[in-house]
Amino acid sequence: MVKQWQVLTAGLTSALLVAGASAAVASTTVSQNNNAPLWMMGEVHDNAEGHFYRLKDLEAKLGGQWRPALLMEQFNVEQQPELTKAWQTCQSAQCVIDTAGGVKGWDWGMYKPLIALALKYELPLVAANLSSQQVKAVMQSGFSAVFDAQTIKAYKLDQPLPQPWLDNQRKMIAQSHCNALPAAATDSMVKAQASRDVMFAKLMGQYASGGAVLIAGNGHVRRDLGVYQWLPADLASRVKIAGYVEPAGADTLIYDIMRVINEHKRADPCAQFKK
Questions:
Q1: pTM value?
Q2: Which residues pair with 37 in a beta bridge?
């Protein structure tokens, strides 16, 4: 019975939020007054150790009655109908991924234990990210390509982005691309990052009444630059942030809880720019 009610709620979410790349995403209520826990839990996408510890930390919080919605960056909002169907009918994480249509580019083996946890505890799965087509539309045409007028006004997207945030976001994006991007490309990517964070913030508000956990990269969950900056004051005061960071990204000021994990051995991401 509980799961059926939650599926109906998730279905309502998809009806309100899913839109094509050229359509506007409908506006929803931003916040409600309650005390259900809210968490944002980060990741280094390709670091298995971080995924392991985050799973342990999340499951430890589920010992009581708290059954939050799991908002996942790895699924796009357009996939919500398929994800809801998968959550309702599947018995395994692989079935959920296959039924919902896992987006290419993610190492889904990393997320199977998390999805299995959601099935075990009947945590609603929410597709939280914008699609690549929607992000491209924002980069080319601005926020109105994805968000409706009410959302743009609510999040002040019709005004210049706050300068300190803008400067720091430019710096982070430039560094993550080896300082090799032209300025125009960096500014377009700043808009893309902001659009994703606004969508995450909207969904955090929509699911706040029952509790929510955002699963996303550390760049999205950090307090100084990410989703936190777009949350209304009542939600910002409730949310807790956990970062799972490699030593180079360790900063106790931008997470409430920070677990430093071993650096994953990977190819030099800047090698392509050194040729």
A1: 0.88
A2: none
